[in-house]
Amino acid sequence: MRIAIAGGTGTVGAHAVRLAEEAGHETIVLSRANGVDLVLGRGLDLTGVDAVIDVSGTSTTSASKATGFFEAVTSTLHRAEREAGVGHHVALSIVGAAAAPHGYYAGKAAQERAVAAGPVPWTILRATQFFEFAEQVAVPLGAWRIVPAMRSQPVAAASVAARLVRLAEHAPAGDAPDLAGPAEMRMAELLRRVSAARGRPARVIELPLPGGFGRALRNGAVLPGPDAQLDGVSVDEWLGEVPQASEGQG
Ligand SMILES: NC(=O)c1ccc[n+]([C@@H]2O[C@H](COP(=O)([O-])OP(=O)(O)OC[C@H]3O[C@@H](n4cnc5c(N)ncnc54)[C@H](OP(=O)(O)O)[C@@H]3O)[C@@H](O)[C@H]2O)c1
């Protein structure tokens, strides 16, 4: 198959590209670094593409910015998919985000609506936070690292990518079963374990974020439900596989 991966240079996207190629597929990476701007609609050509996996993302806690980003990206992809006759749009969302549409999650809720109402047959996979997320979200403050007060059941980004590639290989499925990691863990605890494993134990402070977004993070709104599929890769197994972070990170 020919699979286009929007956000194929990102955390989950790079795994999706690698795994799709290992499975024998041809991949096209859609990202600004590859000359494609999905917000501005520049540089996009989906000729011959069978399926698009959208794992593009933006870094914001603003509901309006996140909504603007995900609506623009989805609309750009839909237009190009229609022109090229692409038969399957696979999108990655976040477990619980659509039911708590505040801050960044408003953007994911808007993306889910746009995909489901769009002109191209679709599959939406909702996953929990990646193990990588703890280091991405942590803000340094002197010797301390601040993370949002948050309950999560994190999962390996590579496992999410593997599931996305499998979904793209099959017919559009609508809402796919949610995907989560094997165990619940506070974001602060995840960062402590990741930084300790890297040999640079972090002093971590939990910060309760304000508003509906902060409440969703704290109250379990983004934890998986009983029907979620649980991936077997634990944080310790994942830590055994990831390369050491470079100095200054982690
Ligand atoms: N992080 C998590 O824990 C988590 C959990 C569940 C679901 N998700 C969802 O998974 C998706 C990917 O997350 P991630 O952490 O892998 O993201 P990421 O590492 O921040 O990567 C974002 C990707 O989007 C591309 N991109 C950004 N703006 C673009 C634009 N205007 N045009 C084209 N490409 C653009 C980036 O490439 P360029 O900069 O080169 O454009 C990059 O490849 C997001 O939609 C996120 O909501 C994330």
SSE blueprint and pairings:
Layout: E1 2-6, H1 11-22, E2 26-30, E3 51-54, H2 63-84, E4 88-94, H3 104-117, E5 122-127, H4 133-137, E6 139-141, E7 144-148, E8 151-152, H5 157-169, E9 174-175, E10 179-180, E11 185-186, H6 187-197, E12 203-207, H7 211-218, E13 229-230, H8 235-241
Parallel strand pairs: 1-2, 1-3, 3-4, 4-5, 5-9, 7-12, 10-13
Antiparallel strand pairs: 6-7, 8-11
Helix pairs in contact: 1-5, 2-3
Bound molecules: NADP nicotinamide-adenine-dinucleotide phosphate (NAP).
The site of NADP nicotinamide-adenine-dinucleotide phosphate has 25 residues, from helix 1 and strand 4.
Short synopsis of the structure:
The protein has 250 residues and is of the alpha/beta class. The chain is built from eight helices and 13 strands.
